[in-house]
Amino acid sequence: MEFESTNNFGGERPRRTTVRTTGILQNNLNTTLTAHIDLVNLNDEPVEVRVQVLNWGTAVTQTNPLGTLLDVTQTLAANTRTALNAAVTATNHYEVRLIVGRNGNRENVLLTTYGRTSIGGGQVNGLSVLPSQLLTVEIDGCL
Predict the structure, then answer these.
(1) What is the DSSP letter of 58?
(2) β strands within the chain, DSSP E
(3) What is the pLDDT of residue 125?
(4) 86 closest CA partner among 118, 133, 117, 53
């Protein structure tokens, strides 16, 4: 799988990957919540995608994620929607990331995420992120 990235072969900088991210969210419930993700490919051709949900823990200052709650790499068929879920422990911070392979128009791959009290349960206020709210960043050596 090839993802959008830049390389500096002079050895000065590691490989950079273009990532769309929710930024850091926090499960503010006293119980585990489900981070529900809807992903759709609106292209006329299949697209390779990687979706990650990263655990940023509960600390006030945290260097690097503590772990990965979900890491799915797959080819998403043309004009297809899929749903993914990750369990986020009470009070933990988390981040949802989307990486689209070079073989597709990344603008036509949309991700929406929201917190649920359980799979199929009600939405948690303040934890919805729409496609237009995702930030595009360049990350050195993506996880």
Answers:
(1) S
(2) 5-6, 16-21, 25-26, 33-41, 47-57, 67-76, 80-88, 93-100, 109-116, 135-140
(3) 87
(4) 53
